[in-house]
Every structure is written in structure tokens, then in C-alpha cells.
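input
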Amino acid sequence: MEKDSDQQPEKCMQSKEHESNLDSEPTGRPCPWVQLKYYSYHSCIYKGMIKKTSPGIQPGDFVNVYTPDDKFFGKGLFNPHARVPLRMIYHGQSQHNEDYLDFLIDRALDFRIKALKLPKFTEAFRVVNSDGDSLSGLIIDRLGNTLVAEVHSLGIWQRLDRFLHRLHKTLGTKFEIVNIDPKIKNLEHIPYSNNPSNAPKTIKFTEYGVKFEVNFETAHKTGFFCDQRENRYRFAELVSGLKVLDLCCYTGGFSLAAKVLGNAAEVTGVDLDEKAIDQAKRNANLNNVRIQWVHVDAFSYARQMQQNKVLWDAVVLDPPKLILSRKEYNKGQRKYEDLNGLAISLVKPGGWFVTCSCSGLLPLADFEQIVIRSAHKLQRRLQIIDITGAAPDHPVMSNCLESRYLKVLWTRVF
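output
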């Protein structure tokens, strides 16, 4: 192995002190390794940040990572074909072996089960949150008796069966669904054939006593937005006896929480997605509640209600991602401002307005200013009560703050 300096990366030699944590490759054979050009504690290392790799390194290898001056830096999953060729799993001095990945799965489980005690309240929660659980490229949600995985990394995919088996054993789940975006599959060279899942087409589960059904053939992402769970519960506590509007309701999460848990007097849910509205109707039937569902574009509906001078005691606005890329940033900002202005105009004086953004490219400060500007243009003022984000089963690691995507503003309108 030739390097730019006289030193070489350490061999995978074992010591008694860390015997259980070290690589177990034959003495004298170097581990696969990657040397960085620059120091970075981020979980995603791009091609321009990599100086050299070991001969014979293979896509998906669990590699040793070294600094520019040849000091051991951590461990990661390497894939030369990927847009992100190195995903850091660990920063530190312990040269962990593959068992460390299983440890991370167990750590994620312990956090959800023992610390958050989520199974006591819900059958739907995020089990693994990618970078937030030091498993970059892996998202897994538990929905009832089914695990739904999104995979963004070849190295993760190669080990996925092992992870799922471990999760099933602890959670008692029976089925699994694996989703890999075709673009990611091609970029990562993931040999996934999209074989039919053993999971049923639809499953049912409860969240804080509210019953939901998910149809995996029509659902978005992992099938259900667990990230809004605590926000749904909190919203329900505000709306007893109130008239509620849920704009961009999808399959009815906020609407059902308001009616079933909050005992709202009247609830209207609006969404352009016909299949989502159909599912929302089935969810309402599961809970034996009556909700008015409207299949229409949220912009058009809000403008019509504005003209008709119809007002609500509480409005929740949770649109899909409106900023898909940096090129669309300004356009997306204008959409947020337009839609928030329309929604605010439908709130009675003193009423509640809860507005959300799931656009990761939109900073919280910018989102807050957009919402404020929308209100001020209407000669109205917002009393800002709180700002929240995703539920705690969506943790954010300090070296990847941009994964904190969800922003929720809790306000009263005057």
C-alpha cells in the first residue's frame, strides 16, 4: 500500500483491551480503509472529501476511516458508486467490528421502548431514523405488525435482513416492506428486484386510541407520518367543542385526533389526493365519527371559503413539501406565503392557527417570517405560543442538524 506520507493506516490487529470490539480479520491483512482529505464530523462524506482508499476495497465494506495525517478517525460504510460514497457510522478510537451495527439497532430499540415507552401509547412509531440513530441511509417505521423500511445505502441493504430479523424478534412484528427509490437503487448499484412483500396490502393500528388503516399500495413514503404524532395529540387537547379545519389533511391524522381525542364540535378535512381522502373516510368509519371530507385543492378551497366569509375556531395547515430543491426555493417560499395567508384569513379572531413545514431546505427562521408576513399582509397579528418539530422517535444527531426538517408553529390569530 502506497500513501502520500511515510505512514500507513493501522492493521486490523487485535489487542486484549478491546478484543470484543476489534475486527477479526487474519493477522497482517489490512482492513478496508478510507483516508480523508479534510476533517469532517458529518455523517455524509462526499467524493471530493476522500483522499485515498485501500486496494481491493469493495462496495458496502465496513471500513476504517483515517484523518489526512493518518490517525484513526472512525468507521463507516463505503460505496464508490454512490453520490455519498462514505457514510460515517462511528467517530472515535474503538475499531468496532460488524457487531457494532447490531448494537446501534439495539440502542435505537431501547430508546423507543425503554426511554420513550412508545408501545404503551401507539402501535406506530419510527424505529430507526437514519443519521439520527447513527445508521445513515436507513429508515424503519413500525406500523402495527409490519416493519416498513426505506433504504438509501448499499451497505445498509446488504445487512438489512439481519437488522429486520433483530427488530422482529424484539418488537414481535411479523411482516416487512422494503422501499428503495429507483434513482437511489441505480446510483447505489443496489441489486434489489422489488420482489412482492409478505405483508398484507392493508394493516390497522392505533395511536393514542385513534384507529388508523394504511394501504401500502397507495400510501406515501413509509405509509404513515409518525413524525406528527405528538403534534396531533397536542392539537386535540386544544379543540374541544370547536369548529376545526384541517387543510392538506392527507389520510386524516389531525382531523381524527381533533374529533376522537379532542371532541371537536365539527371537523372538515381537505386534500387534493383522492386516494388519501378515500382512506381518510375509512379511518373515520373505523372510529365511528363523522367528519366532512372535501376532495379539492387546498388553495382553491381556501380562496372559496375566504370569498364566502366562512371562519373556523381552529385551522391546522400541514402541506406536503413545497420546496423540493434549491432551484425551487423562491417559488416554494411564495407558495408557503400564499397558502398560509389564505389559511390565516379563515381563522376567527382569537382562534388557533397551527402551521407546518416539512421542507428540509427551509430554515425555521425563514418559515416563521413567511408565516408572520402572511398574517401582517392581512392586517392581522399572531400570538406565537410555541414552536415544535417531529416526535422524539425522530432524533437529530448533532453532526447532521439538517435532518431536523419538520417545523410546527402554534399561534393564535388576532
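quick obs: The longest helix spans residues 154-171.
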